[in-house]
Amino acid sequence: MLDQLEWTQRYTDFLSNKESRPARIVYQRDRARVIHSASFRRLQAKTQIFGLNESDFFRTRLTHSMEVAQIGSGLVEQLITVGTDAAGNEQDYVQWLPSMYLIEAICLAHDLGHPPYGHGGEVALNYMMRHYGGFEGNAQTLRIMSKLGEYTRENGLDLSRRTTLGVMKYPALYQDVLSQSADYQEKLARPETTDFRVLDFASWSPPKSIYAEEKYILDWVLQPFNEADRHRFTQFSPSDGGHQRTHYKALDTNIMELADDIAYGIHDLEDAVTMKMVRRERWQEQVMESDVLAKYPLWGDEMTERLFSDSSKARKHAVSQMVGIMVEAIYMHENAEFSHPLLAYQAKLEEGAMAVLELLKKFVFENVITIAEVKQMEYKGQLIVLELFKSLRANPSALLPSKNYKKYLAQETEQEQQRVISDYIAGMTNTYASRLYAKLFTPSQGSIFDML
User: Taking every annotated instance into account, which residue ranges of this chain make up the domain HD (predicted)?
Assistant: First the structure.
């Protein structure tokens, strides 16, 4: 591949002017560093949709990340297949496709910054950090990769430039996005809510971004692109009902996001059906009889029979068939606005598959994600995060673990100190956070011998 060593470079190599290693070695080790990281292991105790105590069958952020990696590698294989003719001649884009090691590393890493209690925990942390640089899950992922991960002392997991680019979904700084929102600036001037139970959580969803603290990583990752590509890639535009966000994605990020969407729209649907949170009548009305499926009949009634069968094998077969339909619908588009192949090449789903996938995502969102039973658990998690942060902020010397407090004292500014508390809470699993909350605030719970 052209400029291969440029993209296999690690940040520590960049700082020390060391020569980069071959891609087959670097990307395999990137994947290994993600898999063996503490942040990746903790995803097993962070929720995808349902509470961890519901059943050991349902998905967590760990199993979700593994499924995204599997789908991502399937998408790459399909792009290779459709990009290679019977004589073995490859289209130009094939040489720029990520290797299996690379796409799996990106997909496995994409949720490392996911805080306890899902999006609810993210909003709660953003509220507590609103005057200190904010909190956002994708930004936290980059922070783990570049600073907090345990592989190196100063540079986190120290993944390659291309892997880091692939995980970087929103290449814009948190404060730059917020500066475009007069409404959010007005909210920042309001006094802090004293009773978290009446906080308007919907008002504090963070912008999709990266922290100012990791700007140097953004600059390093984008270094191989020319000025015009960098400028266009980092611009943001209005989105539907929310903060502005960057409009473009790199090729690898694009593939990862398609895999993430497929896992969300189909695998999470399986959990909902198995748990009987989605009834066959609702599925029939909102999906099977929809205008979208009438226009793009990707499957028929046999899919419904399998999906709502009492047989787990039949359900799994239906889910597998749905995923296969999406994977086989991928093709490569080229955006002439960019000169670099990693920005110009964009993987897309055929029109019908994309429309049906959006329908499935909407169905899961409306019938699972936003129902009262799920939102109530999210709300409880938000209150736990808020109360923990409030107490740790007021009493860091007494409540922060010794290694975290030592790091807290080493910081030069108040914002840096608050980021230490944020990092500590963001790294908690749902189980750890709830046990710590009970230990601190429930009189009958807690002991100096507790193993949280």
Answer: 61-265
For 127-152, what is each residue's pLDDT tens digit?
A: 999 999 999 999 999 999 999 999 99
Characterise 346 by phi-psi region: left (phi > 0), alpha (psi -120 to 50), beta (else).
Answer: beta
Sorted by where each starts, the structural domains of the chain and their CATH numbers stand as 4-110+131-195+205-253 (1.10.3210.10), 256-372 (no CATH)
Q: Which of 269, 274, 254, 210 is nearest to 64 (CA)?
A: 269
CA 60, 62, 66 angle in degrees (round to 5)? 120
Q: C-alpha angle with apex 171: 63 to 139, nearest 5 degrees?
A: 50
- Check residue 308 and report its DSSP letter: T
DSSP letter for 226, please.
-
d(CA 308, CA 311): 8
Mean pLDDT of 147-161: 96
In 3D space, the residue among 106, 217, 117, 139 whose CA is nearest the CA of residue 423 turns out to be 139
14: Cα separation from own chain's centroid: 27
For the chain, what is the mean pLDDT? 91
Type and span of the H or E element at 195: none
Contact 306, 196 (CB under 8 A): no
Q: Where are the alpha helices (DSSP H) in 209-250?
A: 215-222, 227-233
What residue type is assigned to position 42 of the chain?
A: R
Model confidence pLDDT, tens digit, residues 24-39 = 899 999 999 999 999 9
Q: Are 168 and 210 in contact (CB under 8 A)?
A: yes
Q: What is the mean pLDDT of residues 361-370?
A: 87
Residue 58 binned pLDDT confidence (cut-offs 50, 70, 90): low
Going from the C-alpha of 197 to that of each of 129, 201, 383, 384, 426, the distances in angstroms are 18, 10, 7, 11, 20
Instruction: Find out whether 197 and 153 touch, Cβ atoms under 8 Å.
Output: no
80 in Cβ contact with 64 (< 8 Å): no
Q: Is 240 helix (H, G, I), strand (E, B) or coil?
A: coil
